[in-house]
Amino acid sequence: MNTKVYKFSLKTWITLYALLFVISLSLYVFIPPKQFRVIAFFPEATTGKIRGEEHFLPYTRDTQVRLEEFIQHIMLGPKEIWNSNIFPRSTRLIGLVTGKQSVYINLSKEAFLRNDININFLTSVDILKRNIRFNFRHIKNVYVVIEGALPYEPPYVR
Length: 158
Description:
Blueprint: H1 10-30, E1 35-43, E2 50-58, H2 63-76, E3 93-98, E4 102-107, H3 121-135, E5 141-146
Parallel strand pairs: 4-5
Antiparallel strand pairs: 1-2, 3-4
């Protein structure tokens, strides 16, 4: 058995990598990934006035996945430095359930903390609801619970 071993020069490898880069860049430019545009509302750090920012998120057909991606994106905070977070950075999205016109959001207890936030909890919830209703027009009712319990309500006892 006589096998041939081909050795390529450094110039050939560089040319090959450059060609692959140009092909991938042109595919990205002419066939961009599907995204959907959202407007995220955040309070201004100094005045508390609500300001909108344009964001782009990956598009999926499933509304619940798109909504979950949006809420997690909101939890990351604003991209503009003069805006502040709605909830503390340690807040997590525990769960999300959507209906035809309703969404139920379960947040972690860290949403109550106000260490690095200059707005109260109810204002944070109102801004979150505004974000959802503005970007997902079919949703009319937004319900927020903290680790399964309604905020400012006594726990359910059987």
